[in-house]
Design a protein that fits this description.
Length: 83
């Protein structure tokens, strides 16, 4: 599952929403921006590790935002399980 999947998949965008989905066990895959503030994304990455959720790093927040079809950058996004 690549970054392109974010265009069509059911997703959530933003640290708070992604963290919520990972905590509930609903996230299939998480994308984080490499240029995002590490203090912001590290707790999410750690949570994903504990929950066995795959994390893929994207070069920039802008690129991640574009992949989510939004006009602004995003530090994190997740593909969520259908249902």
């Amino acid at each position: 599952m690549s970054l392109d999947a974010l265009k069509t998949a059911k997703k959530v965008i933003g640290i708070k929403q992604v963290t919520k989905m990972v905590s509930k066990g609903l996230a299939e895959k998480v994308f984080v921006a490499a240029d995002a503030d590490k203090r912001v994304i590290q707790p999410l990455v750690d949570l994903c590790s504990r929950q066995n959720v795959v994390v893929e790093e994207v070069p920039t927040m802008y690129e991640l935002g574009q992949s989510c079809s939004i006009e602004v950058g995003s530090a994190a996004a997740a593909i969520v399980r259908p249902g």
